[in-house]
Design goal:
The protein has about 250 residues and is mainly β. It is built from three helices and 21 strands.
Length: about 250
């Protein structure tokens, strides 16, 4: 009995590096960092969560930093607040002007917030969403990024090789393999990953994308996702909680 319990606990640790999200865990300001040049100029993107009359709201912020030569204070541009309609263990839905926007997210064991995470409830049906309103003068809101879904016929952590279903790829001819990337490729410790491949006419396979687990958590996306004729990268932003202002 003790050995069986140990196996179950190890399986949970391997297949999940996140906690179930509660709104109190999100309250505060999170930073995705940014790129600044040698003289200090650059942009920083933030997401802020607050409570208003007991309801969760979020605000997007962009902080612009001037050069050290000008010595001007950072400028902050905000968008929101937007009302959070629903928050589950791995998905957030917020509303702007009557339109719903979806974001998949995960709080890692290191306390980092993965924004636009690759998430699954059963390790077979996976999804990604990072929908952001993009206002354009003289037109309706456009949507930056988007969403994607794909499935594995079996649980890759139990059946390491099997069929996969990915919109835009050849139906019935997509496959997955759960493996470890050797250290000589990663330059460090071996990384666990799931590769998704398609079958070629000559009987060989070609890798389309992979899901990689790192020391920061994951999985993270690497490659291009095909949905019809739309090939794109599914990017996950890693947000770090900023110290609360006193």
């Amino acid at each position: 009995m003790k050995a069986r319990l140990t196996i179950i606990l190890l399986y949970l640790l391997i297949t999940s590096s996140s906690f179930a999200l509660e709104r109190e865990q999100l309250i505060g300001e999170w930073s995705a960092g940014g790129i600044r040049n040698i003289i200090g100029e650059g942009l920083e993107h933030r997401v802020s969560f607050t409570l208003s009359d007991g309801h969760l709201e979020l605000i997007f912020k962009t902080v612009s930093y001037g050069s050290v030569n000008t010595k001007t204070p950072p400028k902050e541009i905000s968008s929101g607040p937007y009302s959070v309609k629903r928050l589950t263990s791995n998905r957030l839905i917020y509303v702007k002007d009557g339109h719903e926007y979806h974001v998949t997210l995960r709080l890692s064991v290191e306390g980092l917030l993965e924004w636009g995470a690759l998430v699954s409830d059963d390790n077979q049906k996976w999804s990604y969403a990072k929908e952001t309103p993009l206002s354009v003068i003289g037109s309706k809101d456009l949507m930056r990024e988007g969403s994607a879904e794909w499935t594995f016929k079996s649980d890759p952590f139990k059946v390491p090789v099997g069929e996969a279903g990915v919109p835009g790829l050849l139906a019935g001819h997509a496959y997955y393999i759960h493996e470890k990337i050797p250290s000589y490729e990663t330059g460090g410790l071996p990384q666990r990953c799931i590769r998704v491949m398609t079958l070629n006419e000559d009987g060989t396979v070609s890798e389309q994308f992979r899901m990689i687990w790192t020391k920061l958590g994951g999985p993270y996306f690497e490659g291009t996702f095909s949905k019809g004729t739309n090939l794109r990268s599914l990017t996950t932003e890693i947000l770090q909680r900023l110290p609360s202002k006193k």
